[in-house]
């Protein structure tokens, strides 16, 4: 990113204009789980069949997307704190057949070293296509962090033949989004929801994923 005065001034103007937005769901008011409390440790422990496992309770946006400072906001609520507790509950792990030897569940790994690649994950889709694996990519159309338009752009770079033109799909006779099918890949949008489409559009997303898994139209 250029750090010329005009670039920095433009970024500051954008941040000031969009600071109150929920970037992960532009039309939805943010309801954080719990605010980050100063001086309070977020490390928790869970007893898994007599063995104590340690995990971090939730993550802030700054922690799991440090490369996207414009979406962080002034307050840093802890997101996913209840999910952390649920996934590290002994009964949950037993129901999901998670081996006792597996470590505690965390939203992001602090043991792995991540790096950015110019080609991102484009290469993965070619590998999966050659392996004959069918894929579906869905996008909530009010997601500002990973917007639908950006997804359409990188999918176009795959240069795949369109097998079914852009069309709406429905739930109970109401438009739930749009779908376009390519060779080995279906691109689906979910109407009126953002990054967490399954949370806010439960029935449409359930129907969509079930239909894809069973090879049924939707």
What does it look like?
With 218 residues, this protein is of the alpha+beta class. It folds into two domains: 31-113, no CATH class; 122-213, Rossmann fold (3-Layer(aba) Sandwich), CATH 3.40.50.11320. It is 30% helix and 22% strand. The chain is built from eight helices and eight strands. The chain has helices at residues 5-18, 61-64, 81-87, 90-95, 122-130, 148-156, 197-200, 202-213, and strands at 34-35, 43-48, 51-56, 77-78, 135-140, 162-171, 174-182, 185-190. Strands 5-8-7-6 form a four-stranded mixed β-sheet, with helices on both faces. The chain has a two-stranded antiparallel sheet with strand order 1-4. A hairpin with a 2-residue loop joins strand 2 (43-48) and strand 3 (51-56). It is globular, with a radius of gyration of 20 Å. The N and C termini lie far apart (42 Å). The mean pLDDT is 85.
Q: How are the SSEs ordered, and which strands pair?
A:
Layout: H1 5-18, E1 34-35, E2 43-48, E3 51-56, H2 61-64, E4 77-78, H3 81-87, H4 90-95, H5 122-130, E5 135-140, H6 148-156, E6 162-171, E7 174-182, E8 185-190, H7 197-200, H8 202-213
């Amino acid at each position: 990113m250029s750090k010329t005065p005009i670039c920095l001034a433009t970024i500051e103007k954008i941040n000031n204009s969009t600071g109150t937005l929920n970037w992960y769901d532009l039309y939805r008011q943010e309801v954080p789980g719990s605010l980050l409390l100063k001086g309070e440790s977020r490390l928790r422990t869970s007893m898994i069949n007599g063995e104590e496992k340690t995990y971090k309770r939730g993550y802030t946006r700054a922690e799991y997307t440090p490369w996207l400072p414009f979406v962080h906001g002034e307050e840093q609520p802890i997101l996913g704190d209840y999910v952390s507790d649920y996934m590290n509950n002994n009964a949950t792990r037993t129901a999901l057949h998670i081996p006792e030897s597996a470590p505690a569940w965390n939203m992001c790994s602090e043991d792995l070293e991540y790096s950015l690649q110019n080609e991102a994950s484009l290469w993965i889709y070619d590998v999966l296509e050659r392996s004959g694996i069918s894929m579906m990519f869905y996008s909530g159309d009010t997601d500002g962090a990973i917007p639908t338009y950006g997804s359409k752009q990188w999918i176009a770079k795959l240069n795949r033949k369109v097998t079914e033109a852009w069309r709406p799909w429905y739930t109970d006779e109401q438009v739930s989004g749009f779908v376009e099918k390519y060779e080995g890949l279906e691109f689906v949008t979910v109407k009126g929801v953002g990054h967490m489409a399954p949370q806010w559009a439960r029935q449409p997303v359930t129907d969509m994923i079930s239909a894809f898994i069973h090879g049924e139209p939707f």
